[in-house]
Recover the amino acids of this structure.
């Protein structure tokens, strides 16, 4: 089994709100660090929402089955003092994405909320709502990452071949070092979208084309 990237030596940050992490006033380049600064790495949690895991047109038992694994991964990353960023797919009722996919995760509905199993961790991180596949599109993710200046960004969530892949692509295009935890990403099964082959293709693309590290974690 491959071990996730190293832990920090400094203490664990206290709980108590989304924006508990002080951000430096100076912004280094992506992947860079301010001289002398002890800054956290980051874990991004992509779309672990009721609408993809538990209810609605796009809910998948494969995605639901990943929730306990994702929970354990996040607990380990918190022990390593990572900052957590949760991305939440959130659409207006007539979003153009519904020309491609059935209606899902509409703003103000239960589908658009992070699953109950992770809600306490959302309170220890930061929630960013998005309306497209990539977490960077029309959000403050880029600015937040620039100020946090992580050495490594770990990514978990759903769906591996859609929002995870597009977010990782944009991370790599900005020269961030990215770790994707194999046990922490999942996709759905459906007509023209066979789970096993799509999942393996996506992992291979993340590794071989985008240059992310796809790591296996013993849970």
């Amino acid at each position: 089994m491959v071990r996730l990237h190293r832990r920090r030596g400094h203490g664990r940050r206290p709980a108590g709100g989304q924006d508990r992490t002080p951000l430096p006033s100076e912004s280094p380049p992506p992947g860079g660090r301010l001289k002398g600064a002890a800054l956290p790495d980051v874990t991004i949690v992509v779309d672990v929402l009721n609408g993809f895991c538990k209810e609605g047109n796009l809910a998948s038992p494969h995605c639901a089955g990943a929730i306990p694994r994702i929970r354990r991964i996040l607990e380990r990353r918190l022990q390593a003092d990572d900052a957590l960023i949760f991305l939440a797919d959130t659409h207006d009722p007539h979003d153009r994405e519904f020309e491609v996919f059935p209606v899902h995760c509409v703003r103000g509905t239960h589908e658009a909320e992070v699953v109950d199993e992770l809600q306490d961790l959302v309170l220890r991180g930061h929630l960013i709502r998005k309306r497209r596949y990539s977490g960077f599109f029309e959000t403050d993710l880029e600015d937040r990452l620039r100020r946090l200046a992580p050495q490594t960004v770990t990514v978990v969530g759903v769906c591996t071949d859609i929002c995870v892949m597009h977010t990782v692509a944009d991370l790599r295009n900005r020269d961030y070092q990215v770790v994707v935890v194999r046990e922490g990403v999942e996709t759905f099964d459906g007509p023209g979208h066979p789970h096993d082959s799509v999942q393996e293709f996506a992992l291979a693309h993340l590794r071989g084309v985008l240059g992310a590290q796809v790591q296996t974690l013993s849970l």
Summary: The chain is about 30% helix and 15% strand. Confidence is low (pLDDT under 50) at residues 6-28, 32-38. Strands lie at 42-46, 83-89, 126-130, 152-158, 177-186, 213-215.
